[in-house]
Amino acid sequence: MALFNIFNRKKNEEQNVGPQVQTTHTDDERQANENTVEQAPVKAEQLAEEQTDAREPVEQPVVTTDSQDSQPVTETPTEEPKKKGFFRSFFSREKKETLDQGLEKTKQGVFAKIAHAVAGKSTIDDDVLDNLEEVFITSDVGVDTTLKIIDRIQKRVAKDKYVGTSELNDLLCDEITQMLADNNNVGMEDFTVPDEKKPYVIMVVGVNGVGKTTTIGKLAYQFKQAGNKVVLGAADTYRAAADEQLEIWGQRVDVPVIKHKMGTDPASVAFDAVASAKAQNADVVIIDTAGRLHNNVGLMRELTKIKDVMRKVLPDAPHEVLLVLDGSTGQNAFEQAKQFVAATEVNALAITKLDGTAKGGVVIGISDQFQIPVKYIGLGEGMDHLQVFRREEFVRSLFGK
Ligand SMILES: Nc1nc2c(ncn2[C@@H]2O[C@H](COP(=O)(O)OP(=O)(O)O)[C@@H](O)[C@H]2O)c(=O)[nH]1
Ligand SMILES: [Mg+2]
Fold this sequence. Notes:
Elements: H1 2-13, H2 27-32, E1 36-39, H3 44-49, H4 93-102, H5 104-117, H6 126-138, H7 143-160, H8 168-182, E2 200-205, H9 212-225, E3 230-235, H10 240-253, E4 257-260, H11 266-279, E5 284-289, H12 296-310, E6 320-326, H13 331-343, E7 348-352, H14 362-369, E8 374-378, E9 386-388, H15 391-398
Parallel strand pairs: 1-4, 2-5, 2-6, 3-4, 3-5, 6-7, 7-8
Antiparallel strand pairs: 8-9
Helix pairs in contact: 5-6, 6-7, 7-8, 7-14, 8-15, 9-10, 11-12
The structure holds guanosine-5'-diphosphate (GDP) and magnesium ion (MG).
């Protein structure tokens, strides 16, 4: 029972907020951004209702420029980079370092607690198991997943007869990896998109401040590095800073950003972004959305509208609805995942800010509890601080291997 008290206490402590967006940008930066497009707003209701749409994506010059000379900027004259996703799929030393560094705080926390849990014990007995239970609960792994882990350890100890506490880390590493593998999470290739779905449409959802825009910037960078042509859509039209922030990422990564004026219908931005990507023969289009909606009905209505409008351009869009969760909010990330999954068809998860927290255990819990795969993890604010989630490498890193 003590466990559930801990669980409930933690839940109550955590509030449904992440840090607010902080963008620093200069006028020069904004002016220099040739990739950003301002277009006249289009009523999404109109788009959704009209079967024959006057704004046929291929015929209209969807992408223009806001620079002085009005040169179209999205028809990049440079040679298309060769796709190299396959060759990048191995887990390089650099990536291992980024992962190890990103998980440092979580590792320190978990290790200190495990050391404490086995202090003065030479074998894994019931006391140690009780202590371990508390370690995982307080590391934000979640109650259900913690009980699963303890059960596995218990069985293993019973089977192997004598298991010393010195072997505990190896045992935990093994069992947690195995548990996540049992959950049927398919292994992810690095930043590849299916050839037959072109452009591959990713719609990014999640509450304010979890890291959606930052994750989109990093994704754009990685997809581009892997040889894909990328377009971004700034469909978070509620906050003044939001589209500028995406613009800055577009500029940094050198990919076009489709945007409208603030306050316009997000669905029309999504429509234009997908239409533009299609017209340009882009490989991936990533749509940023607003996270300010606070109830499921409003959220569902808006996301449904965005999807309906995109489907006028590409009937099977969006291919991926990526829910971004802030890992540093621990149990609250669980709650958000539950709510979003109930409200809309999420089919991929990204967990951010693992670098700034000791609550990285949440990735194990979420990966175990949801049928939807954790696809990406955020390990810092830099362009290359996003990784495809590889459960085995993740657990190994967590246990210092
Ligand atoms: N340390 C760290 N910060 C992150 C990460 N992802 C996002 N952030 C920061 O979190 C804040 C909110 O991110 P933002 O992308 O604006 O969130 P949004 O409101 O969901 O679009 C920004 O200050 C980001 O730099 C991450 O993986 N690690
Ligand atoms: Mg944002």
